[in-house]
Amino acid sequence: MLRLASWRAGWAVSGSDQGWRMPENYYCPRPEVPSAVILLNNGISESNVKSVLQWWCNASIRICVDGATNHFHHLMWQQQGATACHCPCPLPDVISGDFDSIQPDLLKLYSAEGVTIVPTPDQDETDFTKAVRVAAGLIRERQTSMNHILVVAGSNNNRFDHVLAIVATLYKAYQITSTPVVVVWGGSLFWVLGAGQHRIQVPAELCRNPSSSWCGLVPVGQAATATTTGLKWNLDHQTLAFGQLVSTSNTYQLPPGGGDVTVTTSGPLLWTMGWMTEPGLFKRKYSELQNGF
């Protein structure tokens, strides 16, 4: 696997961030693909609870952030006899946060159930950032590796300043963990691509569905020069920066059967893509991961 030297501003890119990304592993998880799940406050709702149950039951590490525990308890744990993945809903490994929104009786209840409670009172970082630090610590403590950390961030009713804070945490996550951190927010998936080469396998269902076949590349932190293939409007050594070019509202130039998008970038880019909100719509096609390009 490719490992690049750090790029400007201390951006160290790990080997785990290079190569082939399969978004289906994020949205339609397989038990044999180890992952961690972080539930943010307002991340769970009636509209996505079945999806969240699937992600949660297949995860190896499970973290509730502060007020997310309220929603977890009422929408997931109390319904553990009828989960979409046909297993009792596991308890969180950790509940973290500054605890300004969790119901105090639930904090006591889960503590008594043996859940690890990790207070993170530092107000200079968001609860999400601190939860990534907690997840990275658990991965190190267990001496294991995760394919990704999936973050359930909420619905389209989220506050815009919270969305910006989420992107800021994704940008910072490279300094915290080498495990890719991926956010699901309503009908969107997004994560930060570090400097280097990336290949993203786009499922056929997205190419055929106009409502979810959109994608974009947005510079974060500083300008980046990028080249792409597989997009309708590809980039060719073009600089992305606010005040210059930002590649939003793009789509795929791929056959109906799906295919690969490649991105080569000199610096961090936010990759964002549409997704169908019901994982059951997908007929999984498993393939063996390939190394390199």
Automatic annotation (TrEMBL):
One family name in Pfam for this protein: TPK_B1_binding
Domain of life of the source: Eukaryota
CDD domains: TPK
GO molecular function: ATP binding; kinase activity; thiamine binding; thiamine diphosphokinase activity
All residue ranges annotated as the Thiamin pyrophosphokinase thiamin-binding domain in the record: 196-269
Keywords: ATP-binding, Kinase, Nucleotide-binding, Transferase
GO BP, sorted A to Z: thiamine diphosphate biosynthetic process; thiamine metabolic process
InterPro entries according to UniProt: Thi_PPkinase, Thiamin_PyroPKinase_B1-bd, TPK_B1-bd_sf, TPK_catalytic, TPK_catalytic_sf
SUPFAM superfamilies to which the protein is assigned, alphabetical: Thiamin pyrophosphokinase, catalytic domain, Thiamin pyrophosphokinase, substrate-binding domain
PANTHER family, per database record: THIAMIN PYROPHOSPHOKINASE, THIAMIN PYROPHOSPHOKINASE 1
NCBIfam families recorded: thi_PPkinase (TIGR01378)
Protein's name in the database: Thiamin pyrophosphokinase thiamin-binding domain-containing protein
Native species: Scylla paramamosain (Mud crab)
